[in-house]
Amino acid sequence: MAADSKLTKLQRPQAKLQKSSLFRQSLRKLMHNKLAVSGFGVVVFMFVLCFIGPFFSPYTDNKINMAMMNKAPNLTHWLGTDALGRDILTRVMQAGRISLTVGLASMVLSVLLGALLGAIAGYYRGLADQIIMRVADLLMTIPGLPLLFIFGALLSEWKIPTDYRMYIVMLMLSIVNWPGLARMVRGQMLSLREREFMQAAVVLGLRDRRKLFGHLLPNIVPLLIVMATLNIGGAILSESVLSFFGLGVMPPTPTWGNMIDAANNMIDFQDHPWLWIPPGLSIFATVIAINIFGDGLRDVLDPKQKR
Amino acid sequence: MSEALLEVNHLKKYFPVTQGLLGRTVGHVKAVDDISIRLEPGETFGLVGESGSGKSTVGRTILRLTEKTDGEVKFKGVDIHSLSPSEMRLLRPRMQLIFQDPYSALNPRVRVGDAIGEALLDHGLCPKSEVRGLVLEALEACGLSSYHIDRFPHEFSGGQRQRIGIARALILNPDLIIADEPVSALDVSIQAQIINLFSRLQQSKGLTYLFISHDLSVVEHLCTRIGVMYLGSMVETAARDELFRQPLHPYTKALLSAVPVPIPKLKRERIVLKGDIPSPANPPSGCKFHTRCPFAVDVCAAEIPVFRDAGGGHFVACHLA
């Protein structure tokens, strides 16, 4: 009898574990990948630093202080000050807010756009497929960076208010990014719709809506998560490049890209390295952490993609 | 004569063979070439033949998974190939398919309970609150347990997955189930369980089966009538006992002589067929079987034999029988 109750006690929690979702199974596998977890840690750290950090800084008003121009790192200004006497650490954090937001938002936009258009093209084929994929091909034949430069130059030409530029930059980045995603999703759709379980769905007489959202999309979600993650890094880089050239988000709104602009002249580059090293390192650390995390995600969610 | 549940008349399915950049049609693979089947309610019709004889294509064309080339398929008197997509969708629950490969027939990302219940919901066959109860009922009818309902397909063995596939078809209360080699991907001990499940379900629900298989012993156990296919055409149809006692077509004789028997020392007359099944893109003239037939005479290569009644509902297409 005693042994019996022990047995049931042993079996109970296991039965509970059995009802696990695919998400939890993947999460458990991901936790074993130390590199990916540390990558995720760095990303979370950057987010916390940028979004909460400024609340603890006494210099958030960015007041110009002529007495404190170009000071090297010291106890009151941990990372020094810039040419206008503003605290670098505070500006790096504030810039991070913009850069990370632009990265995230443009990723969400391009994934939505790419997944939707790719899914339509792959599922319905025919004319819709032709139109969507030819537009995607067209966008992909134009090199991304020059295209962004032209967009950026146009924005300056049309004198778009600086407040709006941030949103327009997000839009620009997603317009350049969606064709690649759409292609991936379309390819997946084409292969999935020929699978036998989709024939089973036909025999069961399921509606298109359920076939698309109940059967096809869940099979694409892992790929989307991986692509989306890797996309954030790319978007942050592109935004930095644009801002570095003065075509993205404009000063005085700080972004990591336009802060590195300080390295544009030789005196600052050599004598005031605290002006450009902190934002540079921030970009480097964030992007590399996102990519490592994305790689780890891919190993877990989409093992076939591994090269 | 009562109305047949399923009536297939002169069904043809040709797949075009294309060549070159422009996809010019250079010929046709005659996967199904003039097949007629009549299924009465409650019976089990076995369709046998070797690989590439077009058995599966018959099943898929009946269900309109592929469009026919010619002929007609009548389900309860309705020509289903003339229905519009929305009418066809409404008819779908009445005829279901069991797949050969239970691994690929289930979506890896859909929970078993959802996979079984979703068609009920989509067709509005029962209120949302009752779906789970019906799914549990179907699971149990197919020999699975209630705690399986929230699991994913990869957590099951091949035999269990086939049971899930059967439950998915069964929950819709179909009149006709087309089983496309449902046991050939399973190992022998599991095959027996699944076959028993098929016959138990037939007794309790009054199902009609079109059972496609290449395994004669399985067909003998389950079917009331059997049709033998060769290269897209029916060569012989007869009641089970009649066919096994007195096969008329040489191809059927060869198939039956190849069935293993449990007494190894028993002396049997083996008819061994030489060569492979010819290409359905370029079938032999006259009787398609004459190239491999041990009894072939001149007329076989020249004239196509008529599929005729040899007495008592035993149909055969052979000049010699």
UniProtKB/TrEMBL annotation, chain A:
InterPro entries: BP-dependent_transpt_permease, MetI-like, MetI-like_sf, Oligopeptide_permease_AppC, OppC_N. It is a multi-pass membrane protein. It comes from the Bacteria. Gene3D superfamilies: MetI-like. It is found in: Cell membrane. Residues 96-294 form the ABC transmembrane type-1 domain. The chain crosses the membrane at residues 35-56, 98-123, 135-155, 167-185, 216-237, 274-297. Keywords: Cell membrane, Membrane, Transmembrane, Transmembrane helix, Transport. Belongs to the binding-protein-dependent transport system permease family. This is Glutathione transport system permease protein GsiD. It comes from Paenibacillus auburnensis. The gene is gsiD_2.
From TrEMBL, chain B:
Gene3D superfamilies: P-loop containing nucleotide triphosphate hydrolases (3.40.50.300). Keywords: ATP-binding, Nucleotide-binding, Transport. The gene is oppF_2. Belongs to the ABC transporter superfamily. NCBIfam families: oligo_HPY (TIGR01727). It comes from Paenibacillus auburnensis. This is Oligopeptide transport ATP-binding protein OppF. GO terms for molecular function: ATP binding. CDD domains: ABC_NikE_OppD_transporters. The keyword Ubl conjugation does not apply. It holds the Pfam family oligo_HPY. InterPro entries: AAA+_ATPase, ABC_transp_ATP-bind, ABC_transporter-like_ATP-bd, ABC_transporter-like_CS, Oligopep_ABC_C, P-loop_NTPase. SUPFAM superfamilies: P-loop containing nucleoside triphosphate hydrolases. Residues 6-256 form the ABC transporter domain.
